[in-house]
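Friendly challenge for the regulars: who can give me the structure tokens for this chain first? No prize, just bragging rights.
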Amino acid sequence: MKTFYLETFGCQMNVVDSEQIVGIARQLDYVQVDSPDRADLIVLNTCTIRARAERKVYGHLGRFKPLKQQRPSLIVAVCGCVAQQEGRRMLEKTPHLDIVCGTHNLHLFADMLRRVQTRRERCAEVSFLDAGQRRRLFPERLPSDEVTRFVTVIQGCDNFCTYCIVPHVRGREVSRPSAEVLEEVRALVRQGVREITLVGQNVNSYGCKEGDEISFAALLRQINAVEGLERIRFMTSHPKDLSDELVACFGELEKLCKHIHLPVQAGANSVLRAMRRGYSREQYLDRIARLRQVCPEIRVTSDVIVGFPGETGADFEQTMDLLRQVRYAEIYTFLYSARPGTAAAELPDDTPATLKQERFDRMLALQEEITGNYHESDVGRVLPVLVEGSSRQGSGQLFGRTTWNRIVNFDGDAALIGHVVPVRLVRAFRNSHLGELA
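First reply, four minutes later:
Bragging rights claimed.
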């Protein structure tokens, strides 16, 4: 019996790619194990969105060198964004690495494995494919007993924000045919899936480049009509492409969850221009106002970068003011780090690291206060919760999520998994609520 170990870093797109890797390995009669020590094949599916991502991957690879020395037949592979960025250099830097497979080349992974097995040929494939080829390579989904699943609707990005590596490692935007998306959603629902999250680097621009394709809002309406599906989510949205038609969906579609992740990145127009975000502070706030007009209970989460090159103290205070105005349910905050190959990497950055950290800590403290207020105000409410499975918090407990994507743990019978049930929230913690069946 051949075995494989897979470790996934990064975003939802990587989660979907890892599912494809699992499917390929199973077709080649590999069985998945939970430890690299027991594996005949080790795969790292990597992300390069943050600083030192490459160093982290090379550090992981270093752990596998003794295993390779003990078992020369062991195959070590790196897939994903770091593989795309580093290419054949990874083979040169890491003699015990066998396979480097880029973001457009997972369809070649089985052949690469065979080349290593039969000819002991180390190989790297990092060529970008054209849009037509990519549309034909969306993977078939593996059967699963999970209640929630990701469905890819668009790959790549055309925005080229100055700080972002994604277009350089994922390529340009290409939308998946809507008929194919719908058929996948229906197939997953037949398997027992009750919640679908539509994913892409910028789902809002779905169909824009394909003259015969429907809009993202129209796609949501068609998915909303799928019988047996309980909930729809999507991410990530670019604010400049958040159309009035899409905003209206939050007031019209009963299955669309009352939550949107809308990355702002900064609250000062000067910084937004330097980032090439394509919208102003005022335009962003107008979109938030329209969302809350059509769906007063909607909760917004966001991404914010602290310390972008040229950010002044006044710029930072505008970002803090934006947080107070919008009152995000949660933010994901990052200290700026230069990514090689991006335009921002060439900008002068003279803000001391200690000052960046001070700003970061202040922002985190403000957001924790806002988030805590949301969580405490929810205590005592009875909310519909989609039950996803057994909780890690205690024997006999289940866990699920509210429409706002908030985890709730509560006592209940396993027969409730896959159903939406009313749960009273009785206590708030940092990352979850404790509840009881109502």
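The chain has four domains: 2-127, 130-257, 289-378, 379-437. The chain has 14 helices and 19 strands. Your move, everyone else.
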